[in-house]
Amino acid sequence: MNDSTTEDSHGIFAENSSVAREIFAENSSVARGIFAENSSVARGIFAENSSEAPIFNTTEYFNDTIAVDPGPSATTLLAVALYLTFVGICAVGGNTTVLTIILKDKKLRSKPHNHLLIVLAFCDLSIMFGGYPFTIISAFSGRWMFNDAICTYAGFFVYFVSLTSMNILVAICIFRYVMICLPGKSFLLTAKLTRYTIFACFAYSFFWTATPLVGWGSYAMEPFVVSCSLDWAKHEMTDVSYLVACIFFCYIVHIAIMVNCYRHISRTVKQLAQRDRERGRIVREDEMLYRSKVADDQQVTRMCFLVVIVFTLVWAPYTFVCAVHIFYEDMPIYLTALPTLFAKTSCMMNPLVYFMTNRSFRVKAFEVFGCTGMSNIVGVEMTNSRQMEPCEVVRKFDKLSKDGVYLGQDKVVMEKTSTMF
After folding, report:
1. What are residue 221's phi and psi, to 5 degrees?
2. Which parts of the chain span the membrane according to its record (predicted)?
3. Average pLDDT in the 271-297 region?
4. What is the rounded radius of gyration, in angstroms, for the C-alpha atoms of the chain?
């Protein structure tokens, strides 16, 4: 009896155990399904939130929050995009006008010195098509939209073209120095020498911009995350040595050469003007040509000097901040971003300087845009028979008879002797 009872209990226990195992297995499979479903949903929510997260944010661990620089807001980046778009429109319009004026005029096109202005306008124009579009697109999107290779390319190209523009400005200063301070050697400024000078400007730029590609220095994202340039934040010896060399050889040396050239030019022009005033009345044609040359040199010198001043003012804040950034890494974003954005206006400044300081350029610019009725506004004089050409100027003089009797004041229309417009 006891044996049968024991066998019955074992059977019931086995049956219950098998039922329990089936229930447990069923519940386990259901639990695993629910867990897998919840995990996939959680991963989807996390991925969705991650894609919508800003580039810079704060990271939370439990109840503690680690503060990270939030970076530029979407509104700030939109303002940057609109600002660079405005700069681009001005740069394209101004430099296209410069190229059109010089290339359409056979006299201007044939003068070797104006080839420097052609290259300068081409460099300023190419920045807008080869470099800034990446920044503008990224600024409108709120983040860098391209890969690291494009970042390196954009940093290299913008730096290469900008440095070439700086080199061309130095070459223009040296050419002006030779023409005014060393007129006896101005015959050396030929088309061949101009071509060699342009090649040297590009070669010098390529050396300083290509070395980061092979390990001396590097290119990286700028603090406002939509543009790339030299990496000023690295503190390794190779990077610091390259950055210090760049500041010296690509900015300080340029400024020193241009200031020294215009110091001598300014002194020579003042001496020529003083000698002109001491001559008194003009009688002979050669003296009139001399005065015409002095006046033209003064105008062109003022224009070139203002170009140098603008160049210095545009790049000085950027150079200063970058130099400080080499030794002081923790700088607020706005202190590094504002000088960078200000330096980006350099590509539109030169045409504005030409327009403000050169009457011939103003006249030809209005002609390019079909505004021929603006002659009176820009100061085009009229002779009795015709309107003057932009390359002509009226020179007044006191007319004397053969016996030295004063016959009154007369004027003559002469062609400008300037090599720059």
Report:
1. -70, 140
2. 80-103, 115-141, 153-175, 196-220, 240-262, 303-327, 333-355
3. 63
4. 35
